[in-house]
Amino acid sequence: MLYPWGHSRRFNAYPDYMKKTFGERVQKLTLDAGFSCPNRDGTKGTGGCTFCLNAAFNPSYCDPLKPITQQIREGISFHEKRYRRVSKYLAYFQAFSNTHGPLDLMIRAYEEALSFNNVIGIVIGTRPDCIDEKKLEYLSVLSKQFHVIIEYGIESVYDETLHRVNRCHTFKETSDAIFRTAEKGIQVGGHVIFGLPGESRESMMKSADILSKLPLDSIKFHQLQLFKGTVMEREYNDKPEDFNFFTEDEYLNFLVDYISRLNPKFIIERIAGETPPRYAVIRPWGPRYDQILVKFEKLLEDRDVWQGKTFEV
Ligand code: SF4
Question: Which residues contact 127 (CB under 8 A, 6 or more apart)?
Answer without folding.
Answer: 37, 38, 39, 97, 100, 152, 153, 169
